[in-house]
Amino acid sequence: AWAALGRANSGDVGARAHFVFVPLMFQGHFIPSVDTALMVATHGAVATVVVTASYAARVRRTVDLAAPGQPGASPVDVRVVALPLDCAAAGLLADGSDDIDRIPLGIGPNYFRALSRLREPLERRLRAAGAPYPTCIVSDFCLPWTQELAASLGVPRVCFFSMCAFYLLCQHYVDRDNALDGVVGDDVEVIVPGMGDKRLVVTRAQAPGFFRLTGWDGYGDAVERALDTADGIVMNTFTEMEPEFVAAYAAARGKKVWTIGPVSLYHRHTMSLAARGRTADIDADECIQWLDSKEPNSVVYVSFGSIAHTADPEQVVELALGLEASGRPFIWMVKSAELYGETVREFLRELEARVAGRGLLIRGWAPQVLILSHVAVGGFVTHCGWNSILEAIAAGLPVVTWPRFSDQYLNQKMAVEVLGIGVSVGIVEEGKDIVVGRTVVEKAIGSILDGGEEGEKRRKRARALAEKARTTVQEGGSSRDNLFDFVQSFRGE
Ligand code: UDP
């Protein structure tokens, strides 16, 4: 599908281009980066993805499954540069693994500092004879050292965001106008400046900015400087969904913004969909068979993404009992069993026995986009990671919003207040230790799957957005055009 897409796309607009992607290896950043690398490669460019050692196999697997070598199709050229990370300095596990999925919490400044020391070995690799010289560095906004890398190589650097323009704009306005200066308390609401007649309020806890906590020693300033001097911005969102925010963000930053999402839509077949990020802990066919046995729009999918987790035993129990009481079929991505004590593990086993056939628990990694795109799924209980929200939108699904940290609080506002496709469980900021009760869970699920007239309106809006998402990645759509323009802009001489 990839190669076919490439041929239909553009011929060889990117023939001389070499895009070097440097993702942050958190799944919510890494997955859309690899997808974007695949996308530029379909335009005939060479794409190199730079990772630490244990991620190399994941990139190769995603690339291989995305481009299954159809007869006569030219394979896409995605290469991998794997660099050894100083895991001890990074504060990772004692066993020397650089796989940060194995450390659910506690990735701190040392990890980011250890990554920044990859700059010199990476520059040597990119200058090595035999490899095409880079024409553009596309790196995560969290990696400010890549701006220096690009400057040293004498090539442009584009900043990659797996976030929506709405969130970035709100955060930018709050920072630029010091809207929270002098505000005492993390939960005091202020109006986001510059949003015109969209009266939008935030608290410090909802818009904490990037890397501003103690211990980061100026890292946040370095991130801001690197963004300020970048040669443009690539974003996993689409203009038809949030035109005014994309335009306002580009204007406020004084930069070209290429919106190229939803990147998940560039995967067209089961194997490719099931291979994003990690190997799923359920067989794709088994998952599809389970879904095939359910009525259309009847199943609710529950996931808190790759970082957040519901380790609090009381919360796990309330969520579980809410799902049980809802009477709906559900798939719940419960993450690794090791996160829980034996009592919770036993409770989950008993739950599974009670809801056998109706509830499916996936421990570890779920093939999320494969699940969301199945007709049996009717709604998504999400922690509001931007990729998850966008994947729900691409699938035309209403969401129950349950944010946990970072941009997720403003993403919740985007889903509920701006797009009108979400119902909140009532968590508005981090650090309150609120346990969401079973009846709240049950009611929220009922609202998105059924929910009377309001529910119908939400579903209609979600479906209309999905239609826009589908057309934006096709001929004449803005994401498709932007991708083409992006490749053309940095194809070198
Ligand atoms: N994901 C997945 N399976 C899982 C959990 C997550 O495929 O079991 C994918 C999901 O589809 C999304 C990404 O991982 O593309 C998570 O990104 P998001 O921004 O939603 O949340 P984060 O994990 O960064 O908090």
Automatic annotation (TrEMBL):
EC numbers for this chain: 2.4.1.-
InterPro entries: UDP_glucos_trans, UDP_glycos_trans_CS
Domain of life: Eukaryota
Keywords attached to this entry: Glycosyltransferase, Transferase
PROSITE patterns cross-referenced by the UniProt entry: UDPGT (PS00375)
Pfam families listed in its UniProt record: UDPGT
One function term, GO molecular function aspect: UDP-glucosyltransferase activity
Protein family according to the UniProt entry: Belongs to the UDP-glycosyltransferase family.
Name of the featured protein: Glycosyltransferase
Species, as recorded: Oryza brachyantha (malo sina)
Gene name of the encoded protein: LOC102714655
